[in-house]
Amino acid sequence: VRTFKLTVAYDGTDFVGWQRQARDRSVQAAIEDVLMTIEGAPVAIVGAGRTDAGVHAAAQVASVSLQRAIPSDELHRALNATLPGDVRVLQIEDVASGFNARFHAKAKVYRYWMWNGAAMLPALRRFAWHIPQSLDSHAMQRAADLLIGEHDFSAFQAARSDVKTTKRTLTRSALTESRPDGPMSTATAGALLCYEVTGSGFLRHMVRNIVGTLIDVGRGRLAPEELTRIVASRDRAEAGPTAPPHGLTLWRVEY
Amino acid sequence: VRTFKLTVAYDGTDFVGWQRQARDRSVQAAIEDVLMTIEGAPVAIVGAGRTDAGVHAAAQVASVSLQRAIPSDELHRALNATLPGDVRVLQIEDVASGFNARFHAKAKVYRYWMWNGAAMLPALRRFAWHIPQSLDSHAMQRAADLLIGEHDFSAFQAARSDVKTTKRTLTRSALTESRPDGPMSTATAGALLCYEVTGSGFLRHMVRNIVGTLIDVGRGRLAPEELTRIVASRDRAEAGPTAPPHGLTLWRVEY
Questions:
Q1: Which of A22, A41, B101, B219 has the fewest CB atoms within 10 Å of its CB?
Q2: ipTM
Q3: CA gyration radius, chain A
Q4: Per-residue pLDDT, B141
Q5: Which residues in chain B are closer than 8 Å to A178, comparing Cβ atoms?
Q6: Higher-confidence position of B22 and A219
Q7: Which of A8, A15, A188, A255 to mutate to test the interface with B (most CBs of B within 10 A)?
Q8: Which of A90, A113, A114, A249 to probe the B interface (max B CBs under 10 A)?
């Protein structure tokens, strides 16, 4: 038995999310189906993060054990030759047996993109949330900063979640504003905002609920300092709305 | 009669190009159809550049004259409220009657994106050409530089074109390499190459034929200096293959 660590990128637009579901198109099933034809038997892969429907990944990590002796570069070629274009395996590494992409992850980094301009750019529409109203990005930066550290993040957890503990530690929580020089940039008025957050773990919808709350701050509905009160309340109703999934990308997983 | 200058962005993936065609989905028809409902009569718009099927625009410019008295900001809102998400009007300006987006254009800027990495990034796949082989980008830069100035570009013109003159002047022709910090960037190995070219006008497929030739240089099939000989030959057979449309974006039009 050999164990592999797969680094996977996907455009989540046309997936129901990472996790395999009975009928719909999931990233996990897309990869497992190809691996099954190589292994000649059912294969189960473990993803570091279960991204929701519409959420993207720049570098999701998955682990898998195979009986069949296949060199990792051959496996890499076989996967990308068969997978649809909206999922790509960026890297495959041979790792010690017992490696589990989910349980051994030390930290995850998410990025949430927002386009703040009058009109949405067509090239950005699958990967960024469009906010046409003017935003106070400095207030949003101050608010984001208040979330760093260990907190009970119940106020930012999806309703009806059932987890042992709602304490999580964020080591980075920052909003940056840029005008990137790439296929998604533009000559026209507008700013690309990026909320980047690093944590040992995240509650369900936590990043999207934080972003929805930061947008309330940016639009002047909340003062930045209120973030501290909202966290302390542990009340979902105190935080802002859930930002849409398509702005979110699982950026990196650290081991 | 009032004349408007429209700045338009589109994701060309699902269009047959700018120009209206009998049946298929074109950008021109998408915009004209909305304008017709506002005008209450057929409307003809003129685009600065007739982009081919699959080619994108960050800032195409179109001109249109309307009889109906409608403020430009109201027209702007009406267009974006009705147009599909892969076309957006970024700006509308009132201009002097007689303004023609095509004939008054002084220069056009195109960008052609290439992703040079083992695996294509799903987020880039609609906007960049994937070149998995290693490329000598310095050789490509030297080759690109040799095209600046006034030349007969017949060697880079699509077969069976019929134009009065094949002389064109390029004021910029440069290849840059970057790793942009946006939704299309990545933590993984690879480089984003961008060929940017500015000219008073372009022959059919000229940019894509130049890029196909630059890639031949990057892969060592041609020496950079041979670009001068290829231009002088005025023979399409001497230049490289036509690069695919999806890497090309009409970046800006200057007046």
A1: A22
A2: 0.88
A3: 19
A4: 98
A5: 181-182
A6: A219
A7: A188
A8: A90
Residue listed under structure tokens 């993984």: B188
- In 3D space, the residue among A145, A3, A120, A81 whose CA is nearest the CA of residue B183 turns out to be A120
pLDDT of residue B23: 87
Residue B78 is which amino acid? Answer: A
The total of other beta-carbon atoms located within 10 Å of residue A190's CB is 20
Provide, as residue numbers in chain A, all residues whose Cβ is less than 8 Å from the Cβ of B192. Answer: 182
Element holding A5 (H helix, E strand): strand A2-10
Q: What percent of chain B has pLDDT over 90?
A: 88
- Asked if the C-beta of B116 comes within 8 angstroms of chain A's C-beta atoms, the answer is no
Q: What pLDDT is attached to residue B163? A: 84
CA angle B59, A87, B13 (to 5 degrees): 30
Spell out the residues 6+ positions from residue A59 whose beta carbon is closer than 8 angstroms to its own.
A7, A8, A9, A90, A250, A251, A252, A253, B186, B187, B188
Q: Which residues of chain A have pLDDT under 70?
A: 179-188
**Which pair of structure tokens corresponds to residue B81?**
């409220």
C-alpha dihedral sign at B196, B201, B206, B210: negative
B80, B91, B122 member nearest A85 (Cβ) = B122
The pair phi, psi for residue B50, each rounded to 5°, is: -90, 90
Q: Sort out which chain B residues have CB atoms less than 8 A from A121's CB and list them.
A: 9, 58, 88, 90
Q: Which amino acid is at B129?
A: W
Residue B212 has a pLDDT of: 98
Q: For residues B13 and B26, give the distance between their C-alpha atoms in angstroms, rounded to a whole number.
A: 11
Which two structure tokens, joined as six digits, stand for B147?
Answer: 């095209």
Residue B65 CB: number of other CB atoms within 10 A? 18
- Pair B203, B175: CB distance under 8 Å: no
Q: Which amino acid is at B144?
A: A
**pLDDT at residue B208 in the model:** 98
Ranges assigned E (strand) in B11-54? 46-47
Question: What's the pLDDT tens digit per position in A65-118?
Answer: 999 989 999 999 999 999 999 999 999 999 999 999 999 999 999 999 999 998
pTM of the predicted structure, to 2 decimals: 0.92
